[in-house]
Amino acid sequence: AGAQESMQGMSGMASRADISGLPTGPADLALGERLAQLCHTCHQTRGHDIVGIPPIAGFPPPVFEREMVAFKIRQRSHAVMNAVAGSLSDAEIVAVATYYSTLPSAH
Q1: Neighbours of 48 (CB within 10 A)
Q2: Nearest CA to 67 among 35, 34, 100?
Q3: What number of CA atoms fall less than 13 Å from residue 26's CA on the CB side?
Q4: pLDDT tens for residues 54-79?
Q5: 19 and 62 in contact (C-beta within 8 Å)?
Q6: 19, 72 Cβ separation under 8 angstroms
Q7: Which of 14, 41, 58, 75 qualifies as a FRET site for 66, CA 20 to 30 Å off?
Q8: CB 104 within 8 A of CB 3
């Protein structure tokens, strides 16, 4: 519930984007770690919140994936996040979500 509540606080309400079409099975953790390097600049990995930018370490994959898909399909609007999410394949979103779920939670 904590991660879900944190996402709600970030956006006013959690996304309801459909993630049923995302790949299932083992994600490529090394790929997720490599792709997440772009995210670390703003979102950090040590649990520190930058004003207006939520920490995402420790988020459960379904919560993370739902938010990323919402940005990708522009259900949520944020220029940077729409561009980042839009550049990722579904498998890459799953990989990044899996990687972030392995980090100590900031929530």
Answers
A1: 11
A2: 100
A3: 3
A4: 888 888 999 999 999 999 999 999 99
A5: yes
A6: no
A7: 41
A8: no
Count of C-beta atoms within a 10 Å radius of residue 80: 10
Amino acid at 21: G
pLDDT at 3 over 60: no
At residue 33, what is the residue type?
E
The average confidence (pLDDT) of the chain is 81
pLDDT at 18 over 70: yes
Q: Give one DSSP letter per residue of 22-61, joined into a string.
A: S--S---HHHHHHHHHHHHHHH-SSSPPBTTB---TT--H
Residue 50's φ and ψ, nearest 5 degrees, are: -90, 135
Instruction: Reply yes or no on whether the pLDDT at 9 is more than 50.
Output: no
Q: Which of 6-15, 23-32, 98-107 comes out lowest in average pLDDT?
A: 6-15
Q: What is the mean pLDDT of residues 95-106?
A: 89
